[in-house]
Amino acid sequence: MNPTKSELAGKRVLVVGDVMLDRYWFGNVDRISPEAPVPVVRISSEQERVGGAANVALNVKMLGAQVTLMTMVGTDEPARRLQSLLAEHGVDTLLGQDAQMHTIVKLRVIGRSQQLIRIDFESEPDHEILAHMLSDFERVVGQHDAVLFSDYGKGGLAHIGRMIELAKAAGKPVLVDPKGTDYSRYAGATLITPNRSELAQAAGAWSGEEPLAQKVNALREQLALDALLLTRSEEGMTLFDAAGALHVSAHAREVFDVTGAGDTVIATMAVLMAAGLPLREAVPHANRAGGIVVGKFGTATVSYEELFA
Q1: Contact 38/305 with Cβ under 8 angstroms?
Q2: 32 burial class (0-12, 13-18, 19+ CB within 10 angstroms)?
Q3: Which of 175, 114, 169, 126 is nearest to 150 (CA)?
Q4: Direct distance between the N- and C-terminal alpha carbons of the chain, in angstroms, rounded to an integer
Q5: What pLDDT was estimated at residue 112?
Q6: For the chain, give me the number of helices (H) and strands (E)?
Q7: How many whole angstroms separate alpha carbon 246 and alpha carbon 15?
Q8: Are strands 244-248 and 146-150 parallel, antiparallel or unpaired?
Q9: Cα–Cα distance between 47 and 24 in angstroms, integer?
Q10: Is 290:265 a contact under the CB 8 Å cutoff?
Q11: 136 an active-site residue?
Q12: Using one digit for the tens of pLDDT, what is the confidence trace for 234-287?
């Protein structure tokens, strides 16, 4: 049974993690610079979208659930822009602000429908402000039906271990989109959702399904995880849990842009788990949501109607 729209509307997901502003500059390329062997791009239009954990929160909202986004930003123009974009979409925010921090911006220059260069602006947040956010987390976690950590490795989740403990103590399912080589910080989570390259970084490469299952089960046991959902691009996704492995094939369709597909998958899982759907029933929906979003340009979202049509 699919959850109804009104069932989802009554659920609230807490999203915690690193946010960024995705800027796109589109233009025409009709000559090479006389100064260096690079294309000259004459900018004709610009677009701004929320990225990172903010895109995850937006995905939760577009699926019809309520969402609170807890994150760190600077006191700069990109922070104000992010706030206004999130407010436009009705995403509630709990923002820690650090005047010394550059809010993360990823600027992509697109010429002739191709990304020519990406320019990143970023710096790490202040640890004292992060510690203050821990008390905010403790205060609000009980008001939510699921907790989702979106780790982009930018320093915003320094206290994730303690946050997972608090969420579990409050009886909430905990989902993590992981980063880096050390997954010990995610110990005790209900579900982690690495892609192939992320899992290989943390657990080592594999060849074949049997060695993969052995690696994943060792990791699950070591970190006391209920489950691991491996997203495998054109191969679909596989859920590893106490009952074994559940594989769902990718939805064959034109892949336009894989940016942010992982955000959509974990947001869908969080919304459905908040609504009480068992993991194994939620996975095919999340797989379909990922298939829809790769057919769209840039960081994108999926609506309730698109997913359950």
Answers
A1: no
A2: exposed
A3: 175
A4: 13
A5: 87
A6: 10, 13
A7: 26
A8: unpaired
A9: 5
A10: yes
A11: no
A12: 888 999 999 999 999 987 566 666 667 899 999 999 999 999 999 999 999 999
**DSSP code at position 142:** G
Which residues share a beta bridge with 141? none
What is the Cα–Cα distance from 27 to 42, expressed in whole angstroms? 5
pLDDT tens digits along 65-111 = 999 999 999 999 999 999 999 999 999 999 999 999 999 999 999 99
CA distances (Å), origin 198, targets 11, 46, 187, 245, 297: 30, 31, 16, 19, 23
CB 282 within 8 A of CB 274: no
Please tell me the predicted confidence (pLDDT) of residue 253.
65
Nearest to 8 by CA among 193, 278, 284, 268: 268
Contacts of residue 208, Cβ cutoff 8 Å, sequence gap at least 6: none
Q: CA torsion angle for 139, 274, 11, 166 (degrees, to 10)? A: 0
Measure Cα distances from 158 to 133, 137, 153, 194, 293 in Å. Answer: 11, 13, 10, 19, 30
> How far, in Å, CA of 201 to CA of 182, rounded?
9
Find out whether 175 and 189 touch, Cβ atoms under 8 Å.
Answer: yes
pTM score above 0.85: yes
- Pick the catalytic residue from 22, 98, 177, 263: 263
Please give the Cα distance from 254 to 297 (Å, whole number). 12
Give the residue from 12, 17, 19 showing the smallest Cα distance to 133: 17
Alpha carbons 17 and 27: distance in angstroms, whole number: 32
Secondary element (H or E) of residue 261: helix 261-274
Read off the tokens for 45.
């239009």
* Rounded distance between C-alpha atoms, residue 90 and residue 15, angstroms: 14
CA distance 159 to 185: 9
